[in-house]
Amino acid sequence: MRKVKDLRKWIAYYDEAERLVEEVALALEYYKEEITTEEEVDDAYGRAIHLFGEVELKNMLRAEEDNLGAVLKINAGAGGTESQDWASMLARMYGRWCDKQGYKTTITNWQDGDEAGIKTMTMQVEGDQAYGFLKSETGVHRLVRISPYNAQGKRMTSFASVFVVPLVDDTIEVEVNPANMSWDTFRSSGAGGQNVNKVETGVRLRYKYKDPETGEEEEIIIENTETRSQTDNRENALRLLRSQLYDKELERRRKAQAEVEAGKKKIEWGAQIRSYVFDDRRVKDHRTGYQTSNVTAVMDGDIDEFIKAYLMEFAGKDEE
Question: Which helix (H) or strand (E) holds 169?
Fold first, then answer.
């Protein structure tokens, strides 16, 4: 049914594109016969171009994982309160963007900062092609501003890391070895009522992952404090673990492809991808060169043009 739905979507796009092209041709004919105005021709042309741009963007999201939801995690960098405040600003930005897209969001982990902001946050995003769009956000985000936490009013630079992986569903098969798992429980911190603070409802899942090719081992740690039910938190932690393991498999495929196509530019986790310079009123993406002076709109979740610029430059190449 999912495949049928996807095919119907592309057929609908084709039918709409054909209709708009015919409208442009008809408007041009009428203009030559002085039945319509030049503005009406321009209007028909603008509608057609807008649709083609939308279809071209969606065509960049044709990898199997692009249609899935996303798990978005934000970690404050070094720098104490300033970086923790920056991490919370990014959490608000992505929350606003998801609301505009009509995506359902669920905060599965939230750790408040020492004085302000957050130390870390994990958010599930459910909706059509959520991962396809949000995968462009993985990396280090840099903030430059006059710090409200500095008595001298100095210009401060802060960093926060954003990490996005696909949110697996029942159609994705991921092998999880129970022997490699261990669990801890803890009391959830922050808002959530008296029960959350008194009972050990928070869970911490530790998983020993071994790379099947290199043999390197690492420990994956998942914390979930979403609900007051330890059972529910365990189930969701397992889902988040499966999402991370699925992402690691995708990364193995990407690396193998990159070795074959060595000439391609690759965006690695940990690279500084975007700078937000408040006093210069500038937000610039270092990968695509796209920038805007409307900092306020960006922080209110208007990041579509950054996502589009990334997808148009990189996403299609990954599938060639």
Answer: none
